[in-house]
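Batch manifest, entry 17 of 40.
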Amino acid sequence: MKTEISGTGISAATVIARRNIMRATKLHKWDSAEHLKTEEDMVLYLEACMEEAGDDAAFIAKALGNIARAKGMSKLAKDTGLGRESLYKALSGEGNPSFGTVLKIIHALGIKLHPYSAIAEYPAQVTENPQ
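Output type: structure tokens
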């Protein structure tokens, strides 16, 4: 004889089975750094974050932190001359790194910023010797 939960049409065994499945399911916190395998991944990720961030500097700092962790924070500390702990704090999204620090980090990560007009749909084409 199946025991039914009153008025639901669902057996108690089904409820117990679903609860056991929920207990067995383990969720893992998403870590972007684990998925940034190539230079192209990192650049495309930063571009997407910059598009999404708007004026949110902490969002960009956090994105740079994810890239830094993917590349190796110890190497970045060595390349920038900044302490590892300082980098973790500055790039946590909670810190407030100076623009100079951000530029050092970007340079050490091998990334270049390419400014272009926000009005133009595409970046301006630069020509050599425009005479």
